Amino acid sequence: MYAFNYHAPKTVRQAATLLAKNEEGKVLAGGQTLLPTMKQRLASPSALIDLNHAEGMTGIEQKGRNIVIGAMTRHVEVATSAVVKNAIPGLAALAEGIGDAAVRNRGTIGGSIANNDPAADYPSAALALNATIITNKRKITADEFFQGMFATALEEGEIIVKVSFPIPSKAAYEKFPNPASRYALVGVFVAKKGSDVRVAVTGAGSNGVFRSKECEAALASRFNAKALDGVKVAASGLNADMHASADYRAHLIPVMAKRAVEKATAK
């Protein structure tokens, strides 16, 4: 690593002030991506603003018909939360499948969403559940927030504080994981709330998380796994790498969607 200054603010306001004063500074949440990148000398921030000591950034609660999760809440806390399991079991199951125990005990929901890794799990949940990302400055809908690979609507000095998930009538997540990293080669989160059906895909898009219009159209009239029979997804615009071709990922999207719907509708 290169030399850097370390700051441990006690409040979000202090963190935002430090971030504004350090133009080359970076916010540190769980550090699951930032620290390895720094160790490899692929990033050299002038300062780290550690959010682990900032007040009011953890916790899970139900507010009306929404589950609100603090940005610094660890994956393991989401996975084991009785509140999440009762209201959105698919979200708890998603968190339980992230990485390994070490990753789940350090990684945070806010860090994952802010980083917007194209193979991360949480962006698909946020997009499918029509979540609202709450920052120190404003509220951003998931449709507006995710803007491409590692790109979001966050502006300079903006920090995610909470994420609010509307409670769906049915929802589930299914992924085909890389056996080593547990990142999604293809992950599909399906959600139904009233007549609205949303299907979000991670791991497959060359431009990051996206909604599958083909799967949504098939499920709009009948939220049943059989409705996805024969659905085809085009390989154009999908990611291709040493782990899977674009054609294979295109094949996996409706397969994972079908499994997710089966899980969501199981009694």
Could you characterize what this model shows?
This protein has 267 residues and is α+β, with helices and mostly antiparallel strands. It has three domains: 5-53, Uridine Diphospho-n-acetylenolpyruvylglucosamine Reductase, domain 2 (2-Layer Sandwich); 60-166, Uridine Diphospho-n-acetylenolpyruvylglucosamine Reductase, domain 3 (2-Layer Sandwich), CATH 3.30.465; 170-265, Enolase-like, domain 1 (2-Layer Sandwich), CATH 3.30.390.50. The chain is 33% helix and 24% strand. The chain is built from eleven helices and 14 strands. The strands form four sheets. The protein has a five-stranded antiparallel sheet. Strands 11-12-13-14 form a four-stranded antiparallel sheet, with helices on both faces. A three-stranded parallel sheet has the order 1-3-2, covered by helices on one side. β13 (196-202) and β14 (210-211) form a beta hairpin. It is globular and about 55 Å long. The termini are far apart.
Quickly give the structural class.
alpha+beta
N- to C-terminal distance: 51 Å
**Rg (C-alpha, Å):** 18 Å
**Broad shape:** globular
Give the low-confidence spans: none
Number of strands: 14
Task: Quote the average pLDDT.
Answer: 95
Relative helix content = 25-40%
The number of helical elements comes to: 11
- List the strand order in the largest sheet: 4-5-10-6-7
Can you identify the CATH class of the largest domain?
A: Alpha Beta
Per DSSP, what share of the residues sits in E-state strands of 2 or more residues?
15-25%
CATH topology of the largest domain: Uridine Diphospho-n-acetylenolpyruvylglucosamine Reductase, domain 3
Judging by the overall fold, what is the CATH architecture of the largest domain?
2-Layer Sandwich
What does the main sheet amount to? 5 strands, antiparallel
Count of separate structural domains: 3
H/E series: EHEHEEEHHHHHHEEHEEEEEEEHH
